[in-house]
Amino acid sequence: MAPTARWEFFDSPELENSKIAKEMRQAKLSRNERFLLESLMEKVATGKGTAGLDFKMLRQEGLSELRFSGDRRIFRLLYSSERRDVLVLVGLSFVPKKGNKLPRQDFDTARARLESWRDSNPAPPIIINR
Question: Model's pTM, two decimal places?
Answer without folding.
Answer: 0.83
